[in-house]
Design a protein that fits this description.
CATH class of the largest domain: Mainly Beta
Strand content: 25-35%
Low-confidence stretches: none
Strand order of the largest sheet: 1-8-12-10-9-13
Number of domains: 2
Largest sheet: 6 strands, antiparallel, barrel
CATH architecture of the largest domain: Beta Barrel
Shape: elongated
CATH topology of the largest domain: Elongation Factor Tu (Ef-tu), domain 3
Order of helices and strands: HEEEEHHEEEEEEEEE
Mean pLDDT: 84
């Protein structure tokens, strides 16, 4: 009996070791790498410089700011609206300034009445021909009083103009003709100057501007006027021909990231600007990324 039990334990340990080895091999096996969802773009040139590009509006995007911190009372536009230069876009709370303006205009009326009264008195005194009726010193005092009243009137009117100018600043207007790309605020929200998120973003979509980032290691190979072809992320079968605009003469730290796992974020880049006409066949959107090839 003991011999059978010993043999059973031996065979059982052997089976356990075999199962453990199989389990280790199973767990250590790597799953096959799945194919990429989209084939990478093909380089159309025999010799080229690769770059990562981002789509902008013509003349770059306009991130509007506000002159003062305040409560948003009205937003006059929505995304895709076309606006003209000077068109109201955003209204900040102006009730406090309007209340101050009422008192300031009343003070202008008081100053006008005072100045008119003193000027009338002076005119009557200047018509008196008898020097015994009024002395020269009193006449000069009356003239000084008129000048002081005129200065107070000018000051009151300047205060009104200043307040009206401040009221005008609370209406944010379009700096130029463009299309509304983003609306990041709503009535009732509080906005501040210098915020990292602009309340409104505008852009001219007559042309799309492509800003290509080229690593400074290959920047010496870049020449003005280089022909370029771009491919949208996820659509590598439709090349987009680009027109050269300029080379920015200033190398900057890289800020537009593609999200690649091996991408260096401390790279400095030379920026080359291209443009692409707006077309329904080119499904480009501001902020979209492209893979670019610049022909050497």
């Amino acid at each position: 009996m003991s011999i059978l039990l010993t043999r059973f334990s031996f065979y059982l340990s052997i089976a356990g070791m075999v199962f453990a080895g199989f389990l280790v091999l199973r767990l250590s096996a790597q799953d096959p790498v799945p194919p990429p969802p989209h084939s990478p773009p093909s380089n159309p040139f025999a010799s080229s410089v690769a770059a990562a590009g981002i789509v902008e509006a013509q003349g770059e995007n306009i991130a509007l700011g506000v002159p003062v911190a305040g409560l948003v009372t009205a937003v006059h536009v929505k995304v895709w609206d076309k606006v003209e230069s000077g068109q109201p876009l955003l209204q900040l709370d102006d009730r406090e300034l309007k209340a101050s303006l009422i008192g300031q205009r009343a003070r202008v009326l008081v100053a006008e009445a005072t100045e008119a009264r003193l000027r009338g008195m002076l005119a009557r005194l200047e018509k008196v021909s008898d020097n015994r009726a009024i002395t020269r010193e009193e006449l000069e005092t009356r003239r000084s009083d008129v000048q002081v009243a005129a200065a107070e009137l000018a000051s009151a009117r300047a205060t009104v103009e200043q307040t009206e100018t401040l009221l005008t600043r609370l209406t944010v207007r379009a700096p130029r003709a463009a299309t509304v790309l983003q609306v990041n605020t709503r009535p009732g929200e509080f906005v501040t100057p210098g915020s990292t998120r602009s309340p409104l973003v505008l852009g001219d979509l007559t042309y799309f501007q492509i800003r290509a980032d080229i690593d400074e290691q290959v920047a010496p190979r870049v020449r003005p006027g280089m022909k370029a072809v771009g491919y949208l992320k996820g659509d590598t079968q439709k090349p987009i021909s680009l027109e050269f605009v300029r080379v920015d003469p200033f190398i900057i730290p890289k800020v537009s990231l593609t999200g690649g796992s091996i991408e260096r974020v401390d790279t400095r880049v030379l920026q080359v600007i291209y443009r692409c006409p707006f077309s329904p066949t080119n499904t480009l959107y501001v902020g979209q990324q492209l893979d670019l090839y610049l022909e050497e």
